[in-house]
């Protein structure tokens, strides 16, 4: 069935986090999300959502999403064609920030609608088979005291998770090390412990703090430096035995290609709303396969469960539960594995009562 775009609607919501997240940048106690619906003339509606980070950002993104809906009214729902139309329309302002996020939401909603039109789960529409993918629990484990971190880490293993992530970037390197050692002692040896600095460190600090983590049972070190300091990451990588991970801030596959060419990363983890939605993700997955580098996800677990199942070098899915209160059927986690929905589409279906409860004026 071919589909024709009628309109795009965007609804801003703010969902309280079950576990507040204290990072080196700011404390997060709520998840500002933008729910995007692609309405077609044929009656099929495609869904996507964005994580806006700030309440104030939701309104700007919503305005651009709905403007795109007006501009693209009557066009066939063909992701490649819609992608080009967004690029043409935004050529003067550039495809970054609000523009790239809106374009990614459009792309994800378009793929969801197409999967529904063909009565296939998204993973099958992408040419792959549904399969469980390893998931690590990324809810909580912020900058808290070592004992509190250890207690929370043990709680995060419920559901059979074999990986957890904690945030680093405390005022001192010794405080970070004490927290890592407390968590590592509290969880079984076979649990992967990822750590994330959220771009908090200078190059000199990164050399010191990351070297201290070598030999401490850390699975990867994420975003120690500013996300686009590829030269700095290359130098850091040469001095460490612990793998480096980043990629959530890649704006499109070209940014990922540049990082891979610079040889500055051991693993990559694109973000669906920044890499370009489903289309951008699949381009990135092809790059990762060509470089034989393992690829994980950042946020959006409901959709990335499908995308990782279609990724040749799939590694870990980052599990967060922020959107769950809004969904009719949240992502299933079974024995630490994320199980892609086998219903038609990406598995996103809004609980309209919950949406109204958490809705805000954007």
Structural key phrases:
alpha/beta, single chain, four-stranded mixed sheet, 20% strand, Enolase-like, domain 1, five-stranded parallel sheet, globular, TIM Barrel, 362 residues, 13 helices, 2 domains
Task: Briefly summarize what is shown.
This protein has 362 residues and is α/β, with parallel strands linked by helices. It has helices spanning 55-71, 79-89, 97-117, 122-125, 146-155, 173-186, 203-213, 230-239, 253-262, 272-275, 277-290, 301-309, 352-358, and strands at residues 5-22, 27-40, 45-51, 133-137, 163-167, 192-196, 220-222, 244-246, 267-268, 317-319, 332-334, 337-339.
The CATH architecture of the largest domain is Alpha-Beta Barrel
Structural class: alpha/beta
List the total number of helices: 13
The helix-strand sequence is EEEHHHHEHEHEHEHEHEHHHEEEH
Largest sheet: 5 strands, parallel
Radius of gyration using CA atoms only = 20 Å
| Number of domains as seen in the coordinates | 2
Shape: globular
Uncertain parts:
none
Give your account of this protein's structure.
With 362 residues, this protein is of the alpha/beta class. The chain has two domains: 5-119 and 351-358, Enolase-like, domain 1 (2-Layer Sandwich), CATH 3.30.390.10; 125-339, TIM Barrel (Alpha-Beta Barrel). The chain is built from 13 helices and twelve strands. β2 and β3 form a beta hairpin. α1 (55-71) packs across α3, α3 (97-117) packs across α11 (277-290) and α6 (173-186) packs parallel to α7. The model has no long low-confidence stretch (mean pLDDT 97).
